[in-house]
Amino acid sequence: MTDLNKEEALEFLNRVSAGIACMFGNSCETLIHDMVNKKSSIISIHHGEVTKRKVGDSLSILGVKEVDEFFEGKDTVNCLGKTTDGRLLKSSTFHLRGEGYHYAFGINYDYTHLSLAKAALEELTAVGQPIEDELYPSGNLLQDIFDECLKIVGKPVALLTKEDRMKMIDLLTERGAFNFAKGIPNIAEKLNISRYTIYKYLRERS
Q1: What does each C-alpha distance from 51 to 1, 86, 122, 124 come to in angstroms?
Q2: Euclidean distance between CA atoms 55 and 33, whole angstroms
Q3: 176: left (phi over 0), alpha (psi -120 to 50) or beta
């Protein structure tokens, strides 16, 4: 429930609806449903061409299915939706209740063309094994050891503290990582520290 009266609630939702539609453009439909009046529930809509709906249309999910009782009271966020002609939508609905009213604010973003771009980018950026692994097979094992130790520490390299890096060196030492040819320079590069730092730490531990 909200302290806003019916007029204030609708005015607020209208401002949010218009703002989001303007911000994300013609592919973003925003609309307000009057959940009390299911037969003519849409009281405001922007970019209705996305789902081919208009003010006065009945309550439906993306223009396809009737809304059930469960949907009436539960917010849905970033769900997959599809139009009758097969276009893909990111869909969210938020409910606002108060004295004498129940509104549902919907956002439907048509990302059909973006899905094609995503597929093209995935194909363009798909790669096989790192070239150093192909040229230097032992590098595969060293990488596996490094990945195992990093998993134990539980952080990505970019977030490692000095203490985390020291723990990494201990774990790598236990697993013989520095016995590999060029093990120290490779590990130094992976940890974003100097070789000198590793040499110094190993001397202190010996």
Answers
A1: 29, 11, 28, 32
A2: 9
A3: left
Q: Which amino acid is at 184?
A: I
Q: How many CA atoms lie within 13 A of 34 on its CB side?
A: 17
Q: What is the pTM of this model?
A: 0.59
Longest CA–CA span in the chain (Å) reads: 79
Q: What is the pLDDT of residues 102-149, one digit of tens each?
A: 999 999 999 998 888 888 888 888 877 666 656 655 557 888 999 999
| Whether the Cβ atoms of residue 143 and residue 172 lie closer than 8 Å to each other | no
User: CA quadruple 39, 40, 46, 50: dihedral positive or negative?
Assistant: positive
